[in-house]
Amino acid sequence: MEQNNQKIGFGQVLIRRYMIIGERRISNYWWAIFVSVGSLGFLSTGINSYFTTVNIGNQVQSLIDSQSTFIPFFPQGLLMSFYGSLGFLLSLYWWFLIFWNVGGGFNEFNKKDGLIRIFRYGYPGKNRRIDLSYSLKDVEAIKVELKQGLDPQRTIYLRLKGNREIPLTGIGQPLTLKDIEKQASELANFLQVSLEGL
């Protein structure tokens, strides 16, 4: 989470905002490009094998690669076309997620107005923007949950009255133990509440 502060007066921070990246991570760009290129390769090979089988694609195949071996359309070319189509649809979905920035947003803690605002982008539709507001008076603690194993999860929660817990860290953003401890302690100090789980 990237942090922005607004200071007023003699250095007192009244508004703290943490940016959440969402789907626009470098790893998502990498995988979207990788799957797009791979799927187009599979799809073009499958389509070329079809045209070569029906004697239309001899000129196309000679333009693509004069030393390539013949791939029969059934079953290899058909399977290559199927996997290429699935990969292309997956990459298209991935590019839409990146474009829409699903999961991106911010957490804003405003002492000036006495509000906490949690904003996230969702999927397109009437609930595209998820905008939640809570009073600072409802905050009981900042809770850190650490799960070890093959898929370690380190999450910071905002614990409100009535045992409601709202996650503040983004999904798919693995933070180091040092970073999560630092963020949680800074937030607990800023809100002047207790820190649980460490």
Automatic annotation (TrEMBL):
<dbReference type="GO" id="GO:0009535">
    <property type="term" value="C:chloroplast thylakoid membrane"/>
</dbReference>
<keyword id="KW-0793">Thylakoid</keyword>
<feature type="transmembrane region" description="Helical">
    <location>
        <begin position="29"/>
        <end position="51"/>
    </location>
</feature>
<comment type="similarity">
    <text>Belongs to the Ycf4 family.</text>
</comment>
<dbReference type="GO" id="GO:0009522">
    <property type="term" value="C:photosystem I"/>
</dbReference>
<keyword id="KW-0150">Chloroplast</keyword>
<protein>
    <recommendedName>
        <fullName>Photosystem I assembly protein Ycf4</fullName>
    </recommendedName>
</protein>
<keyword id="KW-0602">Photosynthesis</keyword>
<keyword id="KW-0934">Plastid</keyword>
<keyword id="KW-0812">Transmembrane</keyword>
<dbReference type="GO" id="GO:0015979">
    <property type="term" value="P:photosynthesis"/>
</dbReference>
<comment type="function">
    <text>Seems to be required for the assembly of the photosystem I complex.</text>
</comment>
<feature type="transmembrane region" description="Helical">
    <location>
        <begin position="82"/>
        <end position="102"/>
    </location>
</feature>
<keyword id="KW-0472">Membrane</keyword>
<keyword id="KW-1133">Transmembrane helix</keyword>
<dbReference type="InterPro" id="IPR003359">
    <property type="entry name" value="PSI_Ycf4_assembly"/>
</dbReference>
<dbReference type="Pfam" id="PF02392">
    <property type="entry name" value="Ycf4"/>
</dbReference>
